[in-house]
Structure formats: structure tokens, C-alpha cells
Amino acid sequence: MITVRGADVRVGARLLLSGVSFHVAPGDRIGLVGRNGAGKTSLLRVLAGETPPAAGTITRTGAVGHLSQDSRAADPAVTVTDRILSARGLDRAVHALRAAGAALAEASAPAAQDRAMHAYSRAEAEFQARGGYAAEAEAARVAAGLGLPPRVMDQPVGTLSGGQRRRVELARILFAGHDTLLLDEPTNHLDADSVAWLRAFLTGHRGGLVMISHDTSLLADTVNRVLHLDPHRATIDVHNTGWADYLAQRAADERRRTRERANAERKAASLHAQADRMRARVSTAVVAKSMARRADRMLAELEPARRTERTARIRLPEPAPCGRMPLGAAGLAKAYDGHQVLSGVDLAVDRGSRLVVLGLNGAGKTTLLRLLAGRETPDAGHVVRGHGLRLGYFAQEHDTLDGNRSVRDNLAAAAPHLTDGELRHVLGAFLFTGDDADKPAAVLSGGEKTRLALAGLVHSGANVLLLDEPTNNLDPASRAEVLAAVGTYPGAIVMVTHDEGAIEALRPDRVLLLPDGDEDLWNEGYLDLVALA
What we know:
Helix content is about 40%, strand content about 20%. The chain is of the alpha/beta class.
């Protein structure tokens, strides 16, 4: 399936992995884990053949399907159905069959009918060779399992929300029937029912699977091997066990290393002390020197101490003074290609208030935040900008970042008043150190893009934050930092999230339900809607 031999993985000048080797065989369901920035997404790109390894070889046998974190790869004019069917070339076969059928219906002369019949037969044979009506039905089942409603199947991909586009790309990968699946955060934007369906699909997958996910319950239920990326040693620790045994094994290994190091250090200290006492006498000086060398070898042979992984020190801006109602909206409406997404939405965001926006994928949550942020213009209604408003906007698609500019230049654009030293300080707090500052934003993983976008808010003075899925793609430690920052931020927040932990950190006082635009006081009963959304 996939064999990796002595591979180096680099991003720019930075070496992420050195000389790693492993094999992905049929039936392997591998969880790829490690902190944000360890190289998980970069390794998946190398395995998929999208980028070459800096050294070593990657051998692939059979078809490989790669779900990246970017869901904007598809032609926005292509319909959802055609995008999914294109994984097996069925989209062209379907269109050819329909065109041949129309030509056959229009043919009147015998010769024309004969030519049309032959063309229809060829088109039907091609359609059946690619799976035919059974494959179409299978594609529909996959789409339904991932929560794509029938009404969106004939819509252009470009009219969908980010969450819906992500589901389309996942459906396309799963429908394709690849021998090996490489999935980068496949549960992003999925509701509870869709996650359950995906869990069953992956458990029954007979080929190979390599998956990056911060959903530990999914990892616990599906994986039978774990590859842990250690960025300090630039290597991979291979654990041929399931998730629970991996966690227990890592904890036991850490206790063993700590015990062995303590014992060796104690023995070495004793040998050094004894050698020091014996050096003063000529008759024992040679023995003392030998004892000291033995103590040094004992320490040198120890496995290097594992460094504690750093955590981003994430904080949100100190809000600038503002009026009682810094942001509002009246009668907002928005449609895409004739599909009405929002209609008659009214909103009032008071100073320091906490509002959570709930609704199914495609209900207009991201569209609402883009309208409030001024990224799009409403078809009707208007946004009310109150006295002293300073907006901070975090986009789930990271489209506030310029992929062609470096990490440092993106932060400088968001906070132009900072000196170079201050920029470096902020980047370091968000775990961008050394050459990381010069990497183009386009090569960052989803978690790194999230950290960079949040870093751009730190010195913005924003008194209203619009946060669209701020915990997506984050490792557990970084997620905890974000939630702590959200919990202590004194300004107003309007948040879209599928993360129940983010809701608990936000402590909302109101909820806006889309697409109807109904606003209500928050109560714990709405938590059930978060998982369902």
C-alpha cells in the first residue's frame, strides 16, 4: 500500500522528520498524532505524493485518496453531485449518457436514429463500466451519511458553506473506493450522527487508513496502530496497538525512562564522588580516572530526556472603549445563485455580551459573520456599527491570511504598529520561532493557521470578536489555551462553533438560531443542539 524508507520531511529550511520508516498495509488503521506543528499535515502530503520527501523514498501500491484541510479545491461552478461522482469519473459518464439520450429522442431520420442509438449504447456501456446506477445510489448514501441534505445535491459547490464543502470533499474521497485513505481532521464540521456514520465506515474499511484527528473518541474506536511524531527528535514513535493501549504504553515508557535516568544519575554521582576521593592518592589515581570515565559513559548511554511540549500562550486583545451597543444588524438577507441563505436577521451585540450562533450546516452561520465583518455585502438590510467599534474576525477557512506572504508578514499586516521585536515576541508566544516566521502561510497546517490568525487579534484592540470555529484543528493543549482566553476576554463575542467545550468556556447569555433568525436567552437545553448541528 504505502512503504516509507528513510524519509526526511522538510518545510522550507526546517527539518520536521529525519530518516523515518514505516509501512501502511491493508487493514492498518493508523492514528497520526503529535502537537500542532510537529509535521502531521506535511507528512500526509508527502504520503499522498503532493510534495516529495527531502530524502528517502515513498512507494505507493494502489489508489491513494487524500482529504486535506482545505475544502476549496473544487471548481465552485460544479454541482455537489458531479463533484462526488467525479471521484470515479462518473460525472462525465452521466452527462454523456444524458446527452446521448437527448440526441436519440430528437433524431427523426432512420440514419440519424441509428447513429444516435450507437452513441447511446457506447455511453451506456461506459456508464455501466464505471458502476452505473448502483454507484450513483452509493454516492447518494455516502452523502446522506455525512449529513448532506438532498436539496444541496444539485447546487454549485461554490454556494455551500465551508462546513458543507468539507462534507462534499469527504464524501468524494470515501466514495472513490481508494485502497488507502489519508484523512486530515475528517470530523471537522460533522454533527454527531455524521461522526457515528463515519466511525462505522472507517471501522469497516478493508484498505489502509492514516488519519489525523483531535477527536480522541474517534481514534479510540477506529485505530489499531499509532504513529506519534516527536518534533524535538524529528522522528516517529511507532506503536502497534490501539488507542487505549498506546496511551498506557506511553505513560509506562515515560515512567520507565524517568526511573532509569534517576537510577543512572544516582550511580554516576556515587562513582564521581568516590573517584574524587581517590584522586588525591597516587596509588588509586588511575582507578579514580577509570571510575569517572565509567560514570560518564553511564550518563551518555541514557536515552535523551524527552522535553515537555511547549504550549502556545494564547491571549485575546484588551478591548478598546466603546458604546453600549457596538454592533448590530437590521433585516439582513443574503442569497447565492437564487438560494436564500439568510432573510430578515436582526441582531444587537451589547458591550461585553456573549452570543452563540447555532444552526445546521448551510443555515448561514458563516455568512452572517462575514456580513457583520464587512467581508460580504447583504442583499437587503444593513449592519449597524456603533460608537467606538473595533472588530476582530476569525474565519474558519483562514481567509484572513495571505498564503503567499510569510508568517511574519501576515502578523505585520494585522498589527502594523508593532516593531519587528514585538512581532517576534508575539509569534514566539504562539509557537512560531526561528525560521517559522519566514514560512509562507500556505504551507502551514490547519492548527498553525489557527494560531497565526489568533495571533493577529492580540494587538487589535478589538472590543467585538467574531469567532467562526476557533478550536478547529487545534491539539488539546492549544485548544485549552484558546478556551481559557475566551473565558477571560472582557469584550463582546459572537461565536459559531460545534465544540461543546467552547460553548462552556464562552458562557453565552444569548443564542441566535439560524436560518430563522430567532434570538433567545441561553439555557443549557441548547447544548443538545450543538452536537446535532
